[in-house]
What we know:
single chain; 407 residues; alpha/beta; Rossmann fold; N-(1-d-carboxylethyl)-l-norvaline Dehydrogenase, domain 2; 2 domains; 10-stranded mixed β-sheet; 4-stranded mixed β-sheet; 14 helices; 14 strands; 2-dehydropantoate 2-reductase activity; 6PGD_dom2; 6-PGluconate_DH-like_C_sf; EC 1.1.1.169
Amino acid sequence: MATWMQNVEEASKGSGKRRLSGRIHILGVGNVGTFVAHSLMSRPSPPPVTLLLHNPDLYSSWLAKKKCLALNSNGLDDIKTGFDVNVLNDKTWYSFPYWDKDGEVCQPMAETEDVDESVGESVEDDDHIECLVVSVKAPVTAMALESVRHRLTPDSTVLLIQNGMGVIDEINEKVFPDPRKRPNYMHGIISHGLARRKEPFQVAHTGIGTTILGPALTAKSTSAVSENEDDWAPSTKYLMRTLTLTPPLVAVAENPSSLMLYQLEKLAMNAVINTLTAAMNCENGELLYNYSYTRVMRLLLLEISSVICALPELQGIPGIESRFSPERLRWMVTQLANKTAKNHSSMLQDVRAGKTTEIEYLNGYIVRRGEELGVKCVVNYMMKHLVLAKQQTSKQRDASAIPIDIL
């Protein structure tokens, strides 16, 4: 296996720009972020990895976990250390390296020391970020990137691993309105089975899947992405090669057009399973063998198929009509719902927890693209608002709850 240093040399070759450091930053240490960081550190020669923690409380939890990430597989925890950490406090990033300048493990603060004081006394970190893996959920991506906007340059590469579509257009509008200052974008699709555990910085690996990676192709920037790898930024080449050579990820590289087709397939499945289970408060498998659910499913997929097949960025790609036919999409949805029959979808979990869902980037995306194309998507529009209503109702109930002290 190539070392991360060899990947740096290969990616930097002939670019005429300064040599890459090879450091990879990870923003969002939930299930996916933990899995990616853990996988990178599993390499025989791991690259330098920095975890971006968005508040001092999360850093306190990190210290309580002894600066470790744990991946549970078959009942056993595989623990990895060696991660550097940046902590956001009062809009400033502070650096907490794992190793000190003499190569010794940095000692955690004393139990009596206040986390905020410890953060305030550490070194500010405004260094440029070359490779950034973003695994926060779509609704908070723009806000999360705002905190590192000053550390990203047109030579940086941002990899987005999340459900839904339309995020990059929102990022460009809210965070990088000037096209000359935008970083390079990549998308990632992970199909590994990952389950959250009660403690932070721990994830259960419940099933081996794949990771599909590629430069991003969006509705408003089709001409900005080259299919030729030689035209990619050095940071994009480096990140792609490093991840595809990281065995636990089982990662493959795809060109922008092929990647978008995989994204649309996943969007179609999520727009049915996640949305219906969130609205009806049921397990994935309960959508099967229920006549009324299957009728709604069919209507959703008819609209989704019509919009996808009419997308201008897909015109000229052979086989689109058959790949995204309602019948094939329904078969894919049925297969996934059956495979995850006892699971509660992430959107249902968000609704129950009173969190903002990804509905605007799933059914909302279909509705918006349909409006652009003159395709009415009334069923997707209705399902979007049913989920938004459930979300708002859940938040209102929590806000009106009366706290009770138990003596």
